[in-house]
Records
---
Amino acid sequence: MDLNYSAQETAFRDEVRAFLRDNLPAEVSRKVIEHRHLKREDYMRWQDILAARGWLGGHWPKEFGGQGWNHVQAHIFDEETALAGAPRVVPFGVNMVAPVIMAFGSQQQKDTWLTGIRTNKHWWCQGYSEPGAGSDLASLKTRAELSADGTHYVINGQKTWTTMAHYADMMFCLVRTTNEKRKQEGISFLLIDMKTPGITVRPFLTLDEEHSLNDVFFDNVRVPVGNRVGEEGKGWTYAKYLLGFERTVVAALGFSKRELGTLKRIAASEMRGGRPLAEDARFSAKIALAEIELMALDMTVMRVLSSRGKAPGPEASILKIKGTELQQTITELMMEAVGPYAVPFVPEAIDGNDDGAGPAHAAPLAATYFNWRKVTIFGGSNEIQRNIISKAVLGL
Amino acid sequence: MDLSFNDDQKQLQDALAKYIERDYGFERRRAYQGTAEGFSREVWAQFAEMGLLSLPFAESDGGLGGGAAEMLVVMTAIGNALMVEPYLATVVLAGGAIARAGSGAQKAELLGGIAEGKLIAAAAFEEPGARFNLAHVATTAKKAGAEYVLSGSKAVVLHGGQADRLVVSARTSGNVADEKGISLFVVDRKARGVSVRDYRTIDGLRAADISLDGVHVPAGALLGAEGAAFEVIDAVADAGVAALCAEAVGVMESLNRQTLEYIKGRQQFGVPIGSFQVLQHRAVDMFIHAEQSKSMAYLAAIKAPVVENSAGPSVGEAASVKERRRSVSAAKVHIGNSGRVVAQDAIQMHGGMGMTNELAAAHYAKRLTMIDFVLGDSAHHLSRFEAA
């Protein structure tokens, strides 16, 4: 039993750190660390740098152009990049659709799309949720009917909560190809070019007045049959296959470590009763409890990494629940830390184009807090995660 | 980085599970608890036979050189079966102090006796009014020729009334609560001037308040250097906390199993109550508490070995004292809080049955709750974590 990284793992970590030191643009990491809004070009700039190094999809198997990193290496990469303030790698291509294409895609799909993802040529979005299909995803209604000549699917319907659809070149999409008794059957998995006629992307603002989410409407959108992954009607199986691919990245360990550090810096600079807030017993106890939660999460991730080789269990659900709860605790404490300056809302300051009101670190904190309420809802709400554990582990 | 158990460690785990299955059912435990000493000498002899009583000590001291993994395995098993034997008091705390501070002769005699199962020892570190601060030592040890004379009071000494020897902290210089000036002495429980108020604990163990009234001990009873015992006490207590954390995990896992079984079987409104989502999610949270607690128990065990530098591949990394304190206190805070929740919810989910003393689950809930108050509660360790 040894908590230390091996010499090999340490060498890899040092390599990642050196790469970050030499290649992560300071103006991008500053935006990330200061909770400023990132634009498409910020993500693309960083992902181009990773792609050039062959590290966009470094955890992919070598046969698909990855580095073949093992779980520990992938974890080290995730943690170090987050700690350094790199933008998160947009997960929809690299982490979500890629494993499905690798497992079930045709050779042509592999050649086209995996290459496009690895080289950062294509931005992907996820077409799962619908107005009537959230946690109950299998009740989705977007229809795909085969054209008379059998060459195309014709799509009609609506997707929603589609993150960064306005930036996306491609969407992987669950559609209903037939109506079956079991709603999980009759669903197919399509790859859709976002420039296809009939697709309308309509933005809406989240409660922090940020635009990252969209409705996507399909009006007789023609998608070549060759863009279907695997068999017709098996889309649900493929979507669920992804769950088995959940990596420890869902714990967002590096993110929470970085943000806890930011919280401590803010608490050290804010004052209460003439003393730094960090020395206020009531507030410091809250930070300490969050830090202890972080240590527990860190150790759980280490245990998960140690037990690899065995079938992936419900660990991802635990990591999702505890990881997101912790992120919310930290964003909440950051907002609390700035006291009255949580209240002003100056969007230009969040974009970095205005000094805002109060200390510079204060401007984005309430907005970030509200935005971060999403993490316990998306990716399978934490209630759904509890249902998974209840069924899969506890047998209830 | 590898947190898995090796084959030997898995074998130990299996052996203990089989032993519990065969010889340590809940009715047996109840019987052992009801004896005059409150535990089973027979079980203790079997512990000796299995090598558990010398497990954490260095091979050069006649031990087996077990490390973090071995202690996790043993203490989790003790928690699983809710064992009432004085393993924490004798092996981890008193044994740990002797192994760290004792001379060759002291180790040979005392660790030898412990290993054979013939010597029960207890650690008398805490005092009335000290509230978990182990540097708060008002008990004095005054030099008188070739002897020391000890006077003072010790509080809630685990298995103090059953111990043959007590490892007592006493002040040889300085003021109450100074870390400097504390010494350790090995005191015969039956020595003149030692009086013991032995009692049951609410979780089925035994403890004692002990007063020392001019107790004469020879100079050879001094354990380690005079006035420099605090670091030993602090490290030993941390190993004790790590052991308690692992025990708590064993208790939680067993209690969660019992609760699950109950809600799957108990019918109300014509269905098993486990079909209600409100109970399912509560059961999931109890499961997650146990998993996170296990993670923290691993951390504590790795950072706070019973004996530093024991041989074998399973020894934790040489942690700095600060790092050890920080990790151990974090673990105790986490497990104190999680233990409270799991115990409360287990009682609640058993309904009226959870209120009966007949049910094993009630006893698991009691132990789990009381672990928080041994060697520092969550509030104490939260402060210690922040100070580290």
---
Amino acid sequence: MLTTVVEKLKSNFPSGILDVREFRDETTVHVKKSDIVSVCTFLRNDESCQFDYCSDICGADAYTPENRFEVIYNLYSIPLNHRLRLKVFVDESDLHCPSVTSVWPAAEWPERETYDMIGVHFDGNKDMRRMYMPEEFEYFPLRKDFPMMGIPDSIPLPRK
Amino acid sequence: MNVEQAMDIRQQKILAALENKNTSVQFDDALENEMILNMGPQHPATHGVLRLLIKLDGETVVACVPELGYLHRGYEKLAENCSYHEFIPHTDRLDYLSPLMNNTAYVLAVEKLVGIEAPKRAQYLRVIISELARISSHLLGVGALAMDVGALTVFTWAFREREKMYDIFELLTGARFTTSFTRVGGLAHDMTPEVKSAIQQFIDQLPEKFNEMINMLNTNRIFVERMDGVGVISRDQAVAIGMCGPNIRGVGIELDLRRAQPYLVYNELDFDIPVFDGGDCLSRYYVRVNEVKESIKIVRQCLEKIPNGPIHANEPKKVLPRKDRIYTKMEELIHDFMLINFGVNPPVGEVYHAVEGSKGELGFYIQSRGEGHPWRLKIRSPSFMNLQATPMLVEGGMISDIVAVLGSLDPVMGEADK
């Protein structure tokens, strides 16, 4: 599955590709954080990749001491009809990740949502406001240390 | 000129006019100033609780910023705290116009993660319910669009047809709105002959009623001119901004996951993908209209082809057993106990499975750590991505075209806000 894409990525970014995983016929490529924009630009422009459609971007909290957060890019190619998933690790000490809005403008809202939910800041995204939660909300709800029942008084309610 | 200065000029004009006893005061500056207008979240044309901040120059939209989150219920957080089966009722509430489609999309993602496949009869039934959901959603899409641009009759006619569909859903699933019909590896119930004949009857009478509705719109000059050339987006822009579903087929791109990456039994069925290349509201409307016709075709074929057989995969440790067997058989009781208390326990891994929902690519990305509940579940909602294109579509147009553009995008806030 997707051997040409993976081979091309490995030869063009020998130090940027950390790991390649295969599960249920889906390929996940772990990319070094500093290389994500150049990898994405390559994937979009290369004629045997042509990932012109950014399906989705989301974040996950692995809850590990190192590389706690993951940013996951689900990509799709309309002309070649294949999918690829990229994954970038973000450490808790440096909650910044380069934005891919320059590659796919569609990334803007999903990146905002990722910031809103797990608190990874995307450098280069012009509109880095929260997507769903109120602007004054100070927690990131999809982190594993945020309780499901919420934190009392974290959203001020109007008084009578 | 700031607001205070403008107010001063206005005040002076009024005072001068009072002194001169001149009753026809001309405020030529009123429309030259830029104005900020807040539309929604409580606005009938925003299809729910979408809020748009609009900067106006006269009647022309200069800038538009959509604000989401008024219907955010945190389903992704809830999913991490409930088992795979417990999340099925939550999927009803995503795109609440086509709950059966969401049920199907979700269990397909879970089945891919677990590594099982539902039997043929269940797959055909899932296609039938998905296409019925698509018809139901597009009927509302077309009806609400017509209502937004001023044709109320079509809306009530569309709801008359949807009412019949809800009766069928009630017969089939026991609920009209929140169906929760699918299960991992199968379905909640089988289709009885009564339901089959009800669907058949509905499908047989729908084309006539639907054509009646569509003919009234297609030959209505006000409707067509209100839509034609409004909210135009180019091919490249639409792909770059991530539009999906009928909206991307309205710019001339034949992207339909039913054909591109077939799931269920779509590769055994004969249907066309309507594509229009205008990129405007009218094209998006035509795509929806033609998709309803194709969906009718698909349901008809499925009703003919549907085989007899079980509706649950033969995977006792993954699929919930039937209720009557739980009460009488030891094995099934054990499996039911294990599934309810500890869950499906798929292997460690991650999958992304997308289906062609009624609004576009509806995908579920699931990370599993081998537990009974997902470690992370992300809903890729089509309405969210379609709404992202709103500023592109409305900027430079007239303020009254915003309702037409929103109606033609057909967003559902339950899905966009999650």
